[in-house]
Structures are given as C-alpha cells and as structure tokens.
TrEMBL record:
NCBIfam families: PRK05985.1
The organism's place on the tree of life at top rank: Bacteria
Pfam family, one: Amidohydro_3
Record protein name field: Amidohydrolase
Annotated SUPFAM superfamilies: Composite domain of metallo-dependent hydrolases (SSF51338), Metallo-dependent hydrolases (SSF51556)
Domain Amidohydrolase, first and last residues per copy: 37-372
Organism: Sabulicella glaciei
Length: 379
C-alpha cells in the first residue's frame, strides 16, 4: 500500500509506503495539488474501559459529594455494565477517531475481584491487530485495606495485565509507604511497569511523588513508572514544584494528565523544560465518575492546550505531542511514529497544520492501523 501525497506533521508532501503492518519508506511526493495532513496513530494514555456507559442509554447520576460517595456510586453504576460490550463500543469509537494505542486501568476490588480483568483481557484479544491495548491492574478500593486485593492483583498480572496500578496511598490506604511498597513489590515480581493514580493535594501529594521516585530509583525502573494526575505539582509553591520536576526527571518518572477543568495540573511547559515526559489521557469517559469527555484524543489535546493557556502554534503542537509521541514514550508503546520501521498507524486529516488538527472538529478522512484501513462509518 502506498499512502500518496500526504504531509507528515504538516511537513512537505510525501508518499508513505506500507508493507504488512510496517511503514517501509517515506519519499517525496511527485504529485501536485492539495494534500492531507498525516499524524501517527494517536495514543490514549489513561482511560477506564470497564466503567463506561458508551453506547448505552443515558445513566442518571445522583452521586453524593464525598470521595467515598463516588466510589460507592461507581460500584452501583458499573453493576449493569458488561465491560466487554461497552468497553468495546468505546474502543471502536476511539479507533475511528484515530486512536490506535490505548492504556486502560481495570478495577480490582472486593466487589468485582477479577471479573473486569477477565472481560478486558478478552476485549484486548478481540481488538488485537487493530488497536494495541495495555491494561493496568487498578486497586479502586485500596490494596492494604481490602483483604485479598494484593493477591488478586498478583493473579491479574499473571493473567496478562501489562502494568501495576495504585491509588492515593495516604488517603485511601492511610499508609503511603505500605501501599507503594505493595505496588512496587508486584512490579518487581512480575517485571511490569507502574502507573499510579495520585489525586492527593499539595504537600501530601508531593510526599507521595518523592516516595514513588525513591522506589523507582531503588528498583532501576527509570522510564517505566507513571504518576497519573499528580495535581500536587500544580498546587505546591513554584520552588517546591521545580525540585519535584527535577527529581522526576532524574529518576525517570513520567506524568499523565487529563487536564480537567476542576483542579490545578502539572504544567506541560515546566515538564518539558525539566525533561519530564508528560502525556495525556481522558480518564473517565461518560461513566459514573464523569458524564463528559469523548473517545477523541484531538479533543483531549485541545483540553491540554486550553488548560496550559497555549495560543501559539508551537505550543498547541506540544499539546498534540501529549496524545501521540509522548503518550507512546510514557506508556512504552514500541515502534511508534511516522518513520520507516514503525508500525503503520496513520491518521489522515483535512488540516493545514498540526495545530489546526487539534482544534478542528472534523473527523479523520482516513485511519490506518497495523497497515490496514479502518472503516469509518459508525454502525
Ligand atoms: Zn483514572
């Protein structure tokens, strides 16, 4: 297959030659006239395929004000779901919008135990060859305070989950050292990367970041550990934040943000300056936690741009990198990019520049994943 006369990242028109699932050559295009913009397949760095109502009738949310209310609400909400069906609907819509790699956390608690893990492992298999999915074993209701949770997580990793999750070690388990030791113990035993949800505020969150960095260094896990949200970085004093960014850069801990409207977030600019990989994900999409968000990474990139007060084209391109190259780097998705040897995951858009692709609401003209065209009509 030759994808003719397209502009990778808005550069000069080229022809992209594809053999099997690989890009084999990129050569200047001899054609004249208008050409489409080409981007590499987009990366969803953080979502929850096992919670979404995507494709279902609207679910009326009447959640209480506290975190405990939200966790209880989520349990009720997800009870009627089949993660393989709703999660599949969400993944398919993501794919039609150009997402070819996706990291999903999957709940493990005393209610669901390994039920969601089993469902999403099947979904991952069903999507194989069209979308690359990573699953993070996620202790939604604490590790230490939920009897059996560490054993279920251990089993989930044996069954094939790709990474070890964690959650607010002080606020949920009330034992930050114990919680993080359990997370990293599992990571070491299974040789798997780590991705920890950290909503903890200010100095409490900063302390957790230090504990994560220390364990990353001790286990030589540079480049294999992510902290999702890390709101504390947007909340502590600038000099405290600068020291934390330096520590994360030195130990090779990356960050993932959903750029929500309701909290301060890590800064894309400061992360870049410090040498910290900061990528983006939607987090909850139309579920018991959040009625909003969409399976469209260009929309998420726009949220990142708005949150960071980006106006210049080069800055808006940084936002696009958080849902493409930096997402692939942070999650460890291999063979990524518009380059010979990389997997042929290509999104073609009617846009002049990458910045226009971020803010445009037009759907992709063509999506190629693993070297094959994805049908774009919605069923
Ligand atoms: Zn999440």
């Amino acid at each position: 297959m030759i994808v003719r006369h397209v502009r990778p990242w808005g550069g000069a028109p080229t022809d992209i030659a594809v053999e099997g699932d690989r890009i084999v050559a990129i050569t200047p295009s001899a054609a004249k006239g208008p050409s489409l913009l080409a981007l590499p397949g987009l990366v969803e760095g953080h979502c929850h395929l096992d919670k979404t109502f995507w494709g279902r009738l609207w679910w009326r949310n009447e959640v209480g004000p506290r975190r405990e209310d939200r966790i209880a609400n989520d349990r009720v909400a997800r009870r009627s779901l089949d993660p393989r069906r709703e999660g599949r609907a969400l993944a398919e819509e993501h794919l039609r919008n150009g997402t070819t790699r996706l990291r999903s956390h999957v709940d493990i608690d005393d209610d669901s135990r390994l039920r969601h893990v089993e469902a999403l492992l099947l979904l991952r298999e069903e999507m194989q060859g069209r979308m690359e999915i990573q699953l993070v074993a996620f202790p939604q209701a604490a590790i230490l305070r939920t009897r059996g949770c560490e054993e279920w997580m251990d089993e989930a990793l044996r069954m094939g989950c790709d990474a070890v999750g964690g959650l607010d070690p002080s606020l949920i388990d009330r034992d930050p050292v114990g919680h993080l030791d359990a997370v990293f113990r599992l990571a070491e035993r299974h040789g798997k990367p780590v991705d920890i949800h950290l909503h903890e505020p200010g100095e409490l969150g900063a302390f957790a970041l230090e504990l994560v960095a220390e364990r990353t260094r001790a286990l030589s896990m540079k480049g294999r550990v992510t902290v999702s949200h890390a709101f504390a970085l947007g909340e502590v004093a600038p000099e405290r934040a600068a020291a934390l960014y330096a520590l994360l850069a030195e130990t090779g801990v990356s960050l993932c943000t959903s750029a929500p409207a309701y909290r301060a977030t890590p800064s894309v600019r400061r992360a870049r300056e410090a040498g910290v990989v900061l990528f983006a994900g939607n987090d909850n999409i139309r579920d018991g936690w959040n009625p909003a968000n969409a399976p469209d990474m260009r929309e998420r990139a726009e949220a990142v741009a708005l949150k960071n007060d980006f106006r210049r084209d080069d800055e808006v391109e940084w936002a696009l990198e958080t849902v493409s190259t930096l997402g692939a780097q942070g999650c460890g998705f291999a063979d990524y990019g518009l380059t010979p040897g990389a997997r042929a995951d290509i999104v073609l858009l009617e846009a002049d520049t990458p910045a226009e692709a971020v803010v445009s609401r037009d759907r992709p003209v063509r999506v190629i994943s693993h070297g094959r065209d994805i049908p774009l009509a919605r069923s």
